[in-house]
Design a protein that fits this description.
The chain is mainly α and 269 residues long. It contains eight helices and six strands. Helix 1 (8-36) runs parallel beside helix 4 (141-167) and helix 2 (41-66) runs antiparallel to helix 4 (141-167). The longest helix has 37 residues, at 177-213.
Length: 269
């Protein structure tokens, strides 16, 4: 079920994300490929590959934005939480028990947490990311990882193209001063932008992989609630997020993550 948050900060961050991506595409095509590689098949090759990465990046980002992260449905009939409001609610006897969300006033499965921005409980919520205007949870973490991966690849690719365009000897390049200065300015801005975004997503990617391999979300790490189950192999933990299919298809945003993650994880919720 598609979702969309009407959060002004998230909407602005989405706009800034696509502004940066399309600016990088403009610089690569207009000021690198057309200016320095227009008489070579390498120009067409780099333009196609660069825009293919942008297409995959956009698809994975949109799926992260509009996918249900694992929202816990509200009950159809109002439940009696008199004990909750009077402070007499009993603590769960084990980590596999359902808990009660005081804000949603409903039962939630193990490892679900309440998001103050989304105003709902999310299964295996890791964090709320303004760059995708959505929570990162059980059902969309795979798309978020893909988005980070493609942003990192695109940033590195852009830097390599800029460096290559200035190293090679281009006899057909425009020699007028204004064109050269404009190309230098756009190239510098692109390198700075790519470097900042590349380092940023690399750090988040490492944090996400650490959370997956450690079998503990960012919220659980902050609350020191884990571990929740015996240690599992890293490949098995990554399979829970990316699906049981071939690892070759894990980078494609067309394949949905497994919906029976609770059964895979040993939780019948």
């Amino acid at each position: 079920m598609p979702v969309f948050r009407k959060d002004p900060c998230g909407i602005v961050c989405i706009f800034m994300t696509y502004l940066a991506v399309f600016y990088a595409d403009y610089v690569v095509v207009r000021w690198i490929v057309i200016q320095t590689l227009h008489n070579s098949l390498w120009g067409a090759f780099h333009a196609v590959v660069f825009n293919s990465i942008i297409l995959l990046l956009t698809f994975s980002h949109l799926r992260t934005v509009f996918s249900d992260p694992g929202i816990v449905p509200l009950p159809q009939s109002k439940l009696d939480f008199a004990e909750l409001h009077t402070g007499t609610q009993k603590e769960p006897t084990s980590k596999d028990d359902y808990t009660v969300c005081a804000r949603c006033e409903t039962y939630r499965p193990p490892r679900a947490h309440h998001c103050r921005i989304c105003q709902r409980c999310v299964r295996r919520m890791d964090h709320h990311c303004p760059w995708v205007n959505n929570c990162i949870g059980q059902y969309n973490q795979k798309y978020f990882l893909q988005f980070l991966f493609y942003v990192g690849i695109l940033s590195a690719y852009a830097v390599v193209l800029v460096i290559f365009s200035w190293i090679q000897d281009c006899e057909d390049c425009h020699k007028d001063k204004v064109t050269t200065q404009t190309r230098i300015l756009h190239s510098i801005i692109l390198v700075v932008e790519s470097g900042l975004f590349g380092l940023f997503v690399t750090a988040i990617m490492c944090d996400q992989l650490q959370a997956i391999f450690g079998d503990e979300t960012a919220v659980e790490q902050a609350k020191q609630q884990g571990p929740f189950r015996p240690r599992k192999p890293r490949l098995a933990l990554l399979t829970e997020v990316c699906g049981r299919g071939s690892p070759m298809f894990w980078v494609l945003p067309c394949q949905s993550p497994p919906k029976d993650l609770d059964l895979i994880s040993g939780y019948d919720v």
